[in-house]
Task: inverse folding
């Protein structure tokens, strides 16, 4: 094995290396830093419970279907309650209607009970 100055290394000296100088050490550190920068950072864990739940739903189609069905059932229940409350308010308003002052006034005929 020829060395850089052209002389041949003999015996055990061919297995020995010179220690790297300061410039070579700096270059090696920069190479390592660049290699580290090129790697994606490891994702250890999503911090929030909401994020964990979203990740679980994204990975499990059955859990996603169950969650969406539960959400839909909850929305339907709330809509039914809201509609029932609206109907109850309308019935209460019909029961407690005030007398129409002048039933023959223009547009009031529809509010007067017709006994015909």
Result:
């Amino acid at each position: 094995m020829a060395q850089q100055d052209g002389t041949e290394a003999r015996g055990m000296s061919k297995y020995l290396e010179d220690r790297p100088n300061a410039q070579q050490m700096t270059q090696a550190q920069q190479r390592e830093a660049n290699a580290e920068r090129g790697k994606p950072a490891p994702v250890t864990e999503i911090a929030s419970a909401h994020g964990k739940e979203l990740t679980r739903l994204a990975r499990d189609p059955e859990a996603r279907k169950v969650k969406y069905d539960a959400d839909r059932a909850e929305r339907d229940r709330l809509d039914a309650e809201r509609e029932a409350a609206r109907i109850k308010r309308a019935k209460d308003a019909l029961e407690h209607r005030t007398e129409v002052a002048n039933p023959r006034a223009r547009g009031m005929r529809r509010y007067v009970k017709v006994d015909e």
Notes: The chain has a mean pLDDT of 81. Residues 61-95 form one domain. The CA atoms of residues 57 and 65 lie 9 Å apart.
